[in-house]
Amino acid sequence: MPDFMRWIFQGICYALFCLTILVYSTHPAYTYLSPGQGEMKLAFKHASQRKEACTKRTQEQLLALPPNMRRTQECSRERADVLVEITLDDQHTIQQSFKPPGLHRDGTVFIYSKLPLPAGEHQLTIKMRDSVRSEGFDFSKSAPVTIHPGQLLVVGFDDIHKELTFH
Amino acid sequence: MKIIRHAGNWAVLAIEQVFNKIFGNPLNPFYHLGSLTFYFFWIVLVSGIYVFIFFETNLAGAYASVEYMTVQQWWLAGLMRSLHRYASDAAIITIFLHMFREFCRDRYRGVRWFSWFTGVPTLWIVVMLGISGYWLVWDMLAQYVAITTAELIDWIPMLPGSMVFNFLEGNITDRFFTLMAFLHLLGLPVGLVFLLWTHVSRISQIDFYPPRPLAWGSLVALTILSLLKPAISHSPAQLNQSPTVLHLDWFYLNIYPLVDLVGPGWAWGIASGTTLLLLILPWLPPRGEKPRAEVNLEHCSGCGQCAQDCPYGAITMQRRSDGRTFEFESRMEDSLCTSCGICTGSCASSNPFRVSKGVLKSGIEMPWYGAEELRTRTREKLSALSGAARIIVYGCENGLDFRVLDTLGVAILMVPCSGMLPPSLLDFALKKGAAGVVVAGCREGDCFHRFGNRWVNARLRGERKPHLFAGTERERITVFWGGKAESHELLERVRSFRDELEKREGFPHA
User: Fold this and answer.
1) Which neighbouring-strand residues pair with B274?
2) Fold of the CATH domain A37-51+79-166
3) Does position B509 have pLDDT exceeding 60, yes or no?
């Protein structure tokens, strides 16, 4: 192959190499949210109620314990799962359950979940059960929300006022 | 696995053949993928140092400082930023080609498992470096990367707390950002250097730099790319917003859409399953190894040539242990030896004229194919030849298809590597009746055992010991280097070599 042809082909090889870099360093574009969508995130931590109620120790029971372990109440460690129900415009309902972490299932539950929402006005209802009850919910909040394209709505929990929040 | 390897090898050889025509063997980029990767890391390092001068390692200033570089000082800082990104991408391409090529060539099993095995965590570090780099720009892409990374880490059981909560509006602090900056600027690079050192620690005479024309060519190409299409940021991170359309760098960030698609648990499963598969690949199935080379101290003069020639650093020189007057002796490290036999070719005592009767022993040789076997088989092959053009072809097991020579009636003696042949053996073949000697093996620059054909060339040119005898008719020895695809060219070469020999004065030589 003549030298000038080799130079040309070498240039083509370098160009193809760069083209590969150029294309895959930015393309194809990835659509995380469609243009007409916003996103809702459940994102809060919450210590659910214990599965069994605490009982008060009698004086005899307390005296039987070493002095450093004489707590007046005896509590089981395991906490209840947290169940969250999301209802949009009184139509679409999603339920998600979150287990307490830890070997004894006694840790604070980290509730994290993502849900794309169509942009616009919505009636958003969130209900949360954090006890062993089999029906009904311990907390709920319902409010009209306006979702803009690309907006992130975070559903949280106010530990001081013990209520679900939208922000 | 064998079928995949063979099919891949066929494809790689075909592509490399084209590149050999365009670049020439010494500059074929496929023969320098490792050193090209090192070179891209150098570009990343130098450009990264310059970018760091202007970069603010805090949440409030990071994006603005990157924008300053990209927009206001585009002519240097912006260029450096683009080079930083594109050289990182180039490194990923060369790494994957390097892996694929070594797999297809079957150079990842047996003794060579170590380089493959250590290469896998190295790849993880490189990818983490890339991810942390994108994080530092703190634009919408960085926000997406940060949050999805946190989701991945939060999935790991038994980790206390939740990382993703750090990225809710109002929760984020500089502390986490500074940690990422530390990891990208110091922690991960130190880990990378350590792993790269480990990766190449079992081979000798490493090419850390590609040939100069390739280095310049790559740098100019990446610079032109950086000027034509500078790297730019997305809009600044906003934690009350979610990203919509992202221009991902698929070389580094391909895991993130996978997380969105299948969830962090499956993404971990796929990533760790792939990693595990790559790690155990050298044993799927393991390579059948031949007995390693052994040192015969009574024939070793301690010259050190074998240690200089061994491509895997399996031979070291140590103080003499047998009381002889030589200062050093060779010492074999079995776990590093691939049984290529190059050391036999290096050893002056492999000279077949040395012991006329009795068993020839070299200072270092493989128990299953030593200097005596080379001499005996050469004699046998030559005695079986008939006709005037008595040509013996020494063929490397790893390159050409020697069946193409069947019609020519030449003698073919296979060896594990062409580098195993001491020049004196070629002279021996000529003295014992061969009209000509052909040494044929892997393509130049692409020896299966790294240096076999390089050492043969250097020995025949008299540039590397051991040399040919002074009186040897060099014209009666020829070499041919090629892959399977060039087997028919070998046929032509041997045929024309035979014709040349026949025209020589005094022919036949036998």
Assistant:
1) none
2) Immunoglobulin-like (2.60.40)
3) no
